[in-house]
Design goal:
The protein is of the alpha+beta class. The protein has 5 helices and 4 strands.
């Protein structure tokens, strides 16, 4: 059974990566001032992800659609990020958005739909 899932993963990985590339949304056109404001806000965010996770693909597309330059942390291939995710967020689940609030508090937001809602509310149409 273990080898069955490895085979499925081996077959689906290039498919997911191809779909990711083909369906990548266009970067929005913001003024230089507006993009700088968004970049400053996005510096407080980090996305822990796996490259071929479909929910992570969806979340990365949301970031791109909103024009957010968020640091991507590959928790599947980088043990440091995996450990940060487990220690900070409490579980090895992706996607997970790490949010550094202005008061220094750190929030770990799981679930692609919850992340999408947060991003849309906070940055949608360059809020």
């Amino acid at each position: 059974m273990k080898y069955f899932f490895k085979l499925i993963r081996l077959i689906l990985t290039p498919v997911v990566l191809l779909i990711d590339k083909l369906t990548e949304p266009a970067w929005p056109e913001y003024s230089q001032k507006e993009q700088a404001r968004l970049d400053k806000e996005a510096a407080k965010l980090s996305l822990y992800h796996f490259r071929t996770c479909p929910f992570c693909v969806k979340t990365r597309h949301d970031l791109r659609r909103l024009g957010l330059n968020v640091e991507l942390r590959d928790a599947q291939n980088d043990a440091k990020y995996e450990q940060e995710l487990i220690e900070g967020g409490g579980k090895r689940q992706v996607p997970c958005l790490r949010i550094q609030h202005d008061d220094g508090k750190v929030e770990w937001l799981y679930e692609s739909n919850d992340i999408r809602d947060y991003l849309e509310q906070r940055y949608g149409k360059a809020a």
